[in-house]
Design brief:
The chain has one helix and five strands; from the N terminus they run βββαββ. With 84 residues, it is mostly beta strands.
Length: 84
């Protein structure tokens, strides 16, 4: 990641047979300034995000996408999208 990064996030999309992930980073706090990047441990990060399902109630495990954002100050946010 750039040394002056401000926010990074991963978007994981889950289909019934496959999971995909995209990673982004920005040197501002504006999502529209983000650039896509590939970290060295893509599979492990994706596995850990999907592994959070075990902590969710069964009715909340049917998400279509998840977005985990972390900023350089240590704040984070995890949002699930349940759109059908």
């Amino acid at each position: 990641m750039p040394q002056d990064w401000k926010r990074t996030w991963i978007v994981v999309t889950s289909a019934e047979t496959a999971t995909a992930a995209k990673f982004y980073v920005t040197t501002s706090y504006r999502d529209e300034d983000a650039e896509e990047f590939v970290p060295c441990n893509v599979q492990e990060i994706t596995r850990r995000i999907t592994g959070l399902n075990d902590a969710l109630p069964p009715e909340q495990r049917r998400w279509k996408s998840a977005r985990l954002a972390i900023d350089s100050e240590g704040e984070y946010e995890l949002k699930y999208d349940y759109a059908r």
